[in-house]
Structure formats: structure tokens, C-alpha cells
Amino acid sequence: MAADRKLEHLARVGMFSSLNKKELALVARASDVVSVAPGSELVKEGDFGHEFYLILDGTATVRRGGRKIAELAEGDYFGELALLDRGPRSASVATEGPAEMLVIGQREFLAVLDQVPAVSRKLLASMAARLREADRKAVSH
After folding, report:
1. Which structural domain, as residue segments, surrounds residue 36?
2. C-alpha separations of 134 from 17, 22, 33, 66 in Å
3. DSSP tally for the chain: helices H, then strands E
4. What pLDDT, in 10s, does the model give residues 105-115?
5. How far from 56 is each of 16, 50, 61, 63, 79, CA to CA, in Å?
6. Which of 94, 101, 105, 125 lies most in the core, judged by the most C-beta atoms within 10 Å?
7. What DSSP string runs through 38-78?
8. Residues with Cβ < 8 Å from 70, sequence gap 6 or more?
9. Number of separate domains in the chain
10. CATH number at residue 73
11. What is the reported pTM?
């Protein structure tokens, strides 16, 4: 996959959107692009995670408690919290058909944060904004 395409996809991810091109390039280098067979379970609810997934091509289904709660497609992502902690997965995600995923492991991601501390500050600000938005939505419902 072309490096520019990786950067383009990563720049659309909320937690990476404030990073500059150089910082995004570091994150991109820490990632791998993998082809996934149809029906592959990428993450399982309750398991401890350590990878982030970004769908480059294909679709996936999100299930919680066995019930379908969402459909994901190109540009959608999941597992971002696993980059920051090794908490249990809140849902299971499986591919519908063949898919191509950009995958970042926690160890590789933490190495980027160690290398460029400014990335940590930007990610903290981005995650705080997401938390405020989620809190606002929870209060309004």
C-alpha cells in the first residue's frame, strides 16, 4: 500500500486528526496492512486487546452480547482504546467478506509516543474532546 494512502486514512481517524504529516508518518510506519478472510473474528468481546484496526477495504459487523449493533465499512475503525490500555474489548468484530485492514499494535504505538512526546499531548487532547462529546450525548439522552 502506498504510504500516502496510509497517511490519508490515518488523518481521518479522530484521535490522529490533530497530528501533522511527519507525526502521521511515524504512526503509519508503526502500522501493517493485512488482508483478512471473510468471516474472520478480529476482536472478541471480553478478550483483552492490544491492536487498533482501520478498515481500508471491506466491511465488518460489530456485535455486543451476540446482538448486531453496528456495521463498519471503509474508513471506520475500532480498538483505539487498546492502544492506550489492555482493557477488555467491549464488543466482537468480524469481517463480512474479504477485507484489508491497517493494524497498529500497542507496543509499536507506544514506541511512537516515546519517540515523539508531542504526539502524546495531541492524543490526550483528542481523547479528552471525544470524552466530553460522549458525556454531552449521554446527558442529553
Report:
1. 3-140
2. 18, 29, 30, 24
3. 4, 8
4. 999 988 988 88
5. 16, 19, 15, 20, 15
6. 101
7. TT-EEE-TTSB--EEEEEEES-EEEEETTEEEEEE-TT-EE
8. 61, 62
9. 1
10. 2.60.120.10
11. 0.85
Q: Which amino acid is at 111?
A: A
> pLDDT-derived band of residue 141, with 50, 70 and 90 as boundaries?
low
pLDDT tens sequence across 63-107: 999 999 999 999 998 888 787 787 899 899 999 999 999 999 999
Tell me the CA end-to-end span of the chain in Å, nearest whole number.
42
Distance (Å, whole) CA 26 – CA 2: 14
Locus of grid cell 492502544: 83
pLDDT value at residue 55: 96
Please give the pLDDT value at position 2.
66
Alpha-carbon distance values, 86 to 47, 52, 136, 141 (Å): 9, 11, 26, 29
d(CA 87, CA 10): 23
pLDDT of residue 128: 83
SS3 at position 92: strand
